[in-house]
Amino acid sequence: MNTTLIIGAGGVSRVVVHKCVQNADVFGKIVLASRTKSKCDDIKSELPDADIETYALDADNTQEITDLINKVKADIVINVALPYQDLTIMDACIATKTDYLDTANYEHPDEAKFEYKLQWAKDEAFKKAGIMGLLGSGFDPGVTNVFCAYAQKHYFDEIHTIDILDCNAGDHGYPFATNFNPEINLREVSANGRYWENGKWIETKPMEIKMVWDYPEVGPKDSYLLYHEEMESLVKHIKGLKRIRFFMTFGASYLTHMKCLQNIGMLGIEPVEYKGQKIIPIEFLKTLLPDPASLGSRTKGKTNIGIVAEGIRDGKKKKIYIYQVSDHEACYKEVNSQAVSYTTGVPAMVGAKLMLEKVWYKEGVHNMEEFDPDPFMEELNKQGLPWKIQEL
Ligand code: NDP
Prior knowledge:
Pfam families: Sacchrp_dh_C (PF16653), Sacchrp_dh_NADP (PF03435). By secondary structure, the chain is of the alpha/beta class. The chain folds into 2 domains: 3-138 and 346-370, Rossmann fold, CATH 3.40.50.720; 143-338, 2-Layer Sandwich (Dihydrodipicolinate Reductase, domain 2), CATH 3.30.360.10. Helix content is 37%, strand content 28%. It has 15 helices and 18 strands. Strands 7, 8, 9, 10, 11, 12, 15, 16 and 18 form a 9-stranded mixed β-sheet that branches. Helix 1 (11-22) crosses helix 14. The chain is globular, with a radius of gyration of 20 Å. It binds NADPH dihydro-nicotinamide-adenine-dinucleotide phosphate. Residues 8-13, 34-36, 39, 57-60, 80-83, 85, 103-104, 136, 138-142, 180-181, 184, 292-293, 340-341, 344 line the site of NADPH dihydro-nicotinamide-adenine-dinucleotide phosphate. NADPH dihydro-nicotinamide-adenine-dinucleotide phosphate is lined by residues 8-13, 34-36, 39, 57-60, 80-83, 85, 103-104, 136, 138-142, 180-181, 184, 292-293, 340-341, 344.
């Protein structure tokens, strides 16, 4: 029987644990470890019949992680802590020869870089240890990469342009809150935008480029160009690509709050002196904002995330849209989490399932689009994230 170590006990983790328990024949015993053990115990209490052990763990400490992996004899580590912990957890996986999966690229707490470089650099060490690392197995990155691979495999000889379109039309009733970890979310959306065209990255000011996209089952929404990490690996792996962009929807209230917070420096990641103490503005802001995990019960509406790919097949132009719609209330009903955590947690479980079943298995450190998309797409349909394809 397998043992699955899940690190982190936030919104995404709750979904991963529920979904792994639904697939207990593959995941076996669940070990849930995070900084605050009581949060692990809360999740465990929702699943009284499941085989779950909980531990307190400082995932910034490689030795502590190594000791826990050895103690519980984990077959795989699912990292759904924060991007700051990616490298320490990967190092513990190398030391213990244990497979690894995460949902977000490594970030340094003092410097937002949004890049895979330091994780890709561990490829050799993973190969030497005879283990696999799957990077970015959430929705975006994650499912969006798989959608691109599926389009490439079944619909195109060559894909020329890709737009990734991420819409969250959920309403939680607060004037301002983030749907996942506020620090990570606000760093991402307040940074300069960037897209890739003809082999070069083109930088934009934050929210400089806007379009309106009519999202099926949601309706037309203002969508803003952002940089998003899956583009870094997709430009390497999708052949013939000439342009890739990423758009995300934001409501007027969110944008107004964000602009004000940014103007007064509340999104800063540099320490400032306050009453003789150093504080980091964005970390302080996090303590004031609603905990994303608490939004679940009050969020209504849908998410729609997908890709539009354009290219050629048999010499003819072709354009397709692959997307997935989730309903916040339905997600909450199933696993006590809103759709943003749900759409991240389900693909994390699916990626880990395919690794444990050796359906997706290659030693080294890999991104999602490097694997056959078909089994992943089939699992999405079975595990709560059914998708659709339109020819445009
Ligand atoms: P949360 O903030 O809700 O949860 C993070 C968890 O990690 C918390 O339980 C936290 O513990 C724990 N943690 C933080 N630091 C440590 C540490 N040093 N040691 C042990 N545990 C630690 O975040 P989310 O659940 O919303 O997000 C989880 C991950 O998913 C993030 O990496 C995020 O970027 C990613 N994500 C990916 C998406 C995708 O589509 N690919 C979309 C959304 C999120 P404590 O509670 O004690 O602070």
